[in-house]
Design goal:
By secondary structure, the chain is of the alpha/beta class. It has two domains: 124 residues, Alpha-Beta Barrel (TIM Barrel), CATH 3.20.20.190; 83 residues, Phosphatidylinositol (PI) phosphodiesterase (TIM Barrel, Alpha-Beta Barrel). Helix content is 35%, strand content 21%. Helix 4 crosses helix 5.
């Protein structure tokens, strides 16, 4: 399982996407459609959890594995078992932003009540983050940004976020300083260059998201 490999590489936390099945169950999957990452076909939001739970996952090379598509609570349970913090990206399918934010936040809040450390909720969708804030105000939130802009810090505060997570292509010392000056943490995605990542962390970056945690093993153990 990917979580076990991340833990073995020294990661302290993992990031994964959550969206809703047709029945409203939060599931962990990246795409809105099933074909690329599972043996199934069609849309996640048009398929009930009873069917999704039977689908085998594909690995990075597209080969089928014995792993099944997981529900959000199953992945959170695995994170707790492995001692990993979770950054749960609320990733709504089209037109389901508010519903997804609400359902994911409610489930995370229920799960976190018995956990040592609460996950962080993040999203590109400000509608989803607002719904999450209303449903579970005690769960920390972060605003994801593809292209940071002058109003990002204000919007993050308006949404009650504790951090920004921005595209590494736009990350620089000025953004790190601006976020910290506004009382926000800052992380980036997707950083696969270990040397550059180390430099950003030395410059005050709080965390980074990578596809290749093995490249950051030495950083994770610092």
């Amino acid at each position: 399982m990917g979580l076990e490999r991340a833990r073995a590489a020294g990661c302290r936390a993992v990031e994964f996407d959550a969206m809703l099945a047709a029945c409203g169950t939060p599931v962990v999957i990246h795409d809105e459609t099933l074909a690329r990452t599972t043996e199934g076909a069609g849309r996640v939001d048009q398929t009930p959890w009873s069917a999704l739970s039977e689908l085998r996952l594909r690995d990075r090379d597209g080969a089928l594995t014995d792993e099944r598509l997981p529900a959000l609570h199953q992945v959170l349970d695995a994170c707790q078992r492995l001692g990993l913090m979770a950054n749960v990206e609320i990733k709504p399918s089209q037109g389901r932003d508010a519903q997804t934010g609400q359902r994911v936040a409610e489930q995370v809040a229920r799960w976190a009540a018995g956990a040592a450390e609460s996950p962080v909720l993040s999203s590109f969708s400000e509608v989803a983050l607002a719904a999450a804030a209303q449903a579970a105000p005690g769960v920390a939130r972060a605003l994801l940004l593809e292209l940071p802009d002058d109003g990002a810090l204000t919007r993050a505060h308006h949404l009650g976020c504790v951090a920004l997570i921005i595209n590494v292509a736009w990350l620089d010392a000025a953004w790190i300083a601006a976020a910290h000056g506004a009382g926000l943490g800052i992380a980036c995605y997707t950083e696969n260059d270990a040397a550059r990542g180390r430099a950003h962390l030395a410059g005050g970056l709080d965390a980074l998201i990578t596809d290749w945690p093995d490249r950051f093993a030495a950083i994770a153990q610092d």
